[in-house]
Amino acid sequence: MVALQAPENYPELCLPVLLDMYMKTNCWFNRNRLLSHLRRCFCALAIAGASLTLPSAEAGTPGPVSGGFSPCFNFAGPPIQAGPNTIIIFNVTATFTGTFTGSAILTERDVIHPDGSITFHGSGVYTDQSGCGTFLVTYSGKGSAVTGSESAHFVGGQGTGCFAGLHTEGTFQGNLVGPSAGCAVAGAGTYNGQILFAP
Hints:
With 199 residues, the protein is α+β, with helices and mostly antiparallel strands. It has one helix at 15-53; strands at 63-75, 80-82, 85-98, 102-112, 117-128, 134-144, 149-157, 166-177, 185-197.
């Protein structure tokens, strides 16, 4: 290794001065090169990050779901008075036709207001008729104790078997009627929405 020494007639040209001169003459060029490199890296990371938020092309595209359902409501316990409102918990079994052909076992909580309007939400497990798989479903909506109509938004996911990777979302509308065989309240309705299988 050769030691750097300043020439005798120019003692000020020691290593720090040479380094400083080199940086002054090349700093602008190096800084622009560094910034350019950083911009390219940032753009590449931004594109990679954005692509992670998009559905995978291998996952496919959303498709429609539609069909009918017939729920059967039975009381899980006595009604509860909460101020002017009445709260009822139902055990619900429902059969489905159409895109989803099978049945669901659900628990639903209804709040009946003094004017007869109802707000409700529920959740449970849907099982395909063939037994190939299941998925969890949640829903919430509004109805009327006066007319018996109801409408809600549903979301399904966390599937198993043939429903692994399933994501479904949509709405349903229905009408409730009085008691029928084995049901405190029965009804019928239709559902529509989207389905997507993704990892």
